[in-house]
Amino acid sequence: MDLETLMQKHQKQLSEMDWTILGYILENEQDLMHLSIIELGEKVHSSKSSILRLTKKLGFSGYSEFKYFMRQSKQHTIATTGTDLIALQTKDIENTVKLAQQTDFTLLSKAIQKANTVYCYATGYSQRKVIEEFSKMLMICDKRSIIIPVKTELDISMSMITKEDIVLFVSLSGETDDVKQNILSLNARKIPVVAITTFSHNFFAEHAQYAYFYYSTPFTVSGKEHIAQSLVGLSVLVDLIFRKYVTYLNKEFEEGM
């Protein structure tokens, strides 16, 4: 499914301003990947709230998810209703594990062990449920871990986070606009950042000292307006990160005996 198909599907709900915004997006798809919602609003002489309403009319939770759809759609990776969804799930898991097998987790394990506190922030509810389990498992290893539940608390916590800590961001797109400034601020203060996102070139990964990727292929549901997407790949990757950390701790313990 592409943007033009969505436009046709929801055409009765779209206002004249919506069509203007979508017309600009279709003509500037490549530029869209680098525009924040405020910057897009300036380009089309519209407000942030108008663009948010438009993305929700098209079936998305917000602008970040819409941009992710546009990137995936361009790569022709939106699964259609004829796709074998069980095979798709297996493929996402296999690709996540295969990529992880080619990745060295040693430096991340060392950074987690060294950190006074592991701060965890997820950009969505579903991602937060996964990272909450990771945080609980870290505490079993006597590693202090704090979940930051909402953006307001992330902003408040910024002054308390130090170079002796590490901050882990979990996201679908890796492009959530209102978090980008937090990551840039952590970079400026030389505080280690971990990004866990879907496999793509994205802002979070680009500005993290440790970047890890999972696969999550969107798919359509017959008769439904929304695009469905499973985070099983994220669960697999986070579990792998924890197991790699425990393996590292066990090795350190055995070598110290």
UniProtKB/TrEMBL annotation:
PROSITE patterns attached to this UniProt entry: HTH_RPIR, SIS
UniProt keyword annotation of Magnesium present: no
InterPro entries: Homeodomain-like_sf, HTH_RpiR, RpiR-like, RpiR-like_SIS, SIS_dom, SIS_dom_sf, WH-like_DNA-bd_sf
Protein name: MurR/RpiR family transcriptional regulator
CDD domains named among the record's database cross-references: SIS_RpiR
Domain (HTH rpiR-type): residue spans on this chain: 1-77
A GO biological process held by the record: carbohydrate derivative metabolic process
GO molecular function: carbohydrate derivative binding; DNA binding; DNA-binding transcription factor activity
UniProt key word Ribonucleoprotein: no
Keywords in alphabetical order: DNA-binding, Transcription, Transcription regulation
SIS domain span: 108-251
